Amino acid sequence: MKTDTAPAVTPVRREVRPKAGKQSAGLLGGVSHVMLVLWTILTVTPIVYTFLNSFKTNTEIFGDSPLALPQQWGWGAWGRAWETSRIGEYLVNTVIVVAFSTFFTMLLGSMAAYVLSRYEFRGNRLIYTLFVAGLSIPPFLALSALYKVVDNVGLLGTHTGVVLVYVAYSMPFTVFFLTAFFKTLPTTVAEAAMMDGCGHARTFFQIMLPMAKPGLISITIFNVIGQWNQYLLPIALLPGDKQDKWLITQGIANISTSAGYEADWAGLFAALSMAIIPILIVYVIFQRQIQTGLTAGVGK
Amino acid sequence: MASIVLNNVDKIYAGGVKAVNGLNLEIKDGEFMVLVGPSGCGKSTALRMIAGLEDISGGEIVIGDRVVNHLPPKDRDIAMVFQNYALYPHMTVEENLAFGLKLRKMSKPEIAKRVNEAAKMLGLEQYLKRKPAALSGGQRQRVAMGRAIVREPQAFLMDEPLSNLDAKLRVSMRASLNQLHERLGVTTVYVTHDQVEAMTLGDRVCVLRDGILQQVDTPQNLFDKPVNLFVAGFMGSPSMNFTYAELVRDGAGAAVAFAGYKLPVPDTAFAEKAGLERYIGKRIILGIRPSDFEDAVAANGASAGWARVPVKANVTEELGSEINVLFTIDAPPVEHKDTVAAANDGDEEEAAALPLTGDKSLWTARVNARSHVRPGQNIELVVDTHNLHFFDVESGLSIGHPANVGR
Fold first, then answer.
1. Looking at beta carbons, which residues of chain A come within 8 Å of B322?
2. Which pTM does this prediction carry?
3. Is the ipTM of this complex over 0.85?
4. pLDDT digits (tens, 9 = 90+) for A90-117
5. What is the spatial distance between Cα B209 and Cα B214, in angstroms, rounded to a whole number?
6. Which end of chain B has fewer CB within 10 Å, C or N?
7. What kind of membrane protein is this, topologically (chain A) (predicted)?
């Protein structure tokens, strides 16, 4: 295009100064690495401490150098925890309970979240608000009522009861998180699936769930860890006369409380290690799969 | 394959917004129908209603010989191509193509045959095992097309499928779309806001505005015989020049006078445009297409029915094959609701680039590249007076257009 008042041409040259940029990035990198190292020490030390102590004797644990290596490596404490304190049994119990409760939490939570985020109907906001309101109820508050309810339906001291309560307690955050997540996914993909011949259910299970994988994995890890570490609810729902139904947290607590002055500290640490290891495994497996950008390739 | 008929179709959104208003449209079997209009005109809503992705508030939609108002999308036997392609990100190209067929319980060899045929047609063979994330924009677009093609549906619905591609790719995809339609002959409804796409692709083009149908016709007829100011201003790039003018008749014959110019109106115009006689001595809106101008020097010889207009060129745009000459005339710009609406969403030419005082309007003439006109030069243009367009000042309707007789 030409005009009779030609504008002055001002060529813009991009100035390249790689040195300055590199220096500031280096400085920032240095600081962030220091922070990372500090953070690593903070998180790794207790774990290493726990593992080390599970191989020591009581004298060594309370001796002068708590961070020293054990004089004799032996699995004695692990064996005692597994057999005598029945941690092995409780571990299996916990795996079963957490597996079922996480599965149902994810299934029901993702279905509810999908409908709440994608379908418009009367009462949508109300249901969503009710779910989210669940976040504001601390377990302590509902504990005695919960005990009564579970007792009345005859599920006290059963794993079914615990699973149901776990699912109920995990739903609010799961729905809250996944509703927001589903809203970020493109609507046209679901529409394309409908055109291709999917019904609502198939669209959800075959198209939307795979697309929501990163969100599902994050919230699954969150739920597994939360339910694995749950102590208060099993204490209330699996009373002392049903010791064979106990979960791992109850078992660990029992080691330190039951023994009185003759506490088996090495056994306690061994039990703790056993509780930590499965969670570590879950985390290592899944964290590799938390990738954002799984929706890359949907559109332009 | 099937025809698609819309009878008095309404779409009213919650809150009372009427997105589509009494739309009547018949898309013939095998026809390529383009719905075009500015954004918010209801074209996408109309398409989504045909697809079954939106409820129909009123009227009925018939595909083939079935009323589909209450059929879910999957039972309408149609395929849709989305603007953002909407590929399934967790499936390979092959699975993307086969998904719709698997759902229809087709046998495996048949699926493989169709997928391979479509992939060959679209040049996707070497990408069948890739995920969409590993494809370029153009390739994804072709996968989206392929997903529709393998279904062999009664009709294709396309919602601005080319608008996410870059300009060059868009032109080549436009050509292949044309070829594809030629080859498959499937009824196609195509939504776009780009009038060039509409002109080049459509067997017929349907111009919508504010949910109301303006005109349905072949691209050439839309261009030559727009039904009102809106269609006239929307179709064609650069868009049509408008001015208020007076239709007069004196000893020398009929003429149209504006901004100090006086263009003779040939008798054929009165013969073609019924009712134009009644406007003699009255104010009208005159429309002239930029392409109906020519440089007087370059057009030497073709003078029959051509009137001379001396102007001063303010801006020239050299396009290689031709030159757009922008000049001002001493007449206030036409401010009709139709021209405003068309200008807002047509091609954004540089209309606002020149500071205009209130009583001048900017016109564009498209002249031959041999003209060598320079900015600031005085130039003599000639106008093809056979192609003048006359519009009613009040209604904005084209005077003498068959559709407007009696309105």
1. none
2. 0.80
3. no
4. 999 999 999 999 999 999 999 999 999 9
5. 7
6. C
7. Multi-pass membrane protein
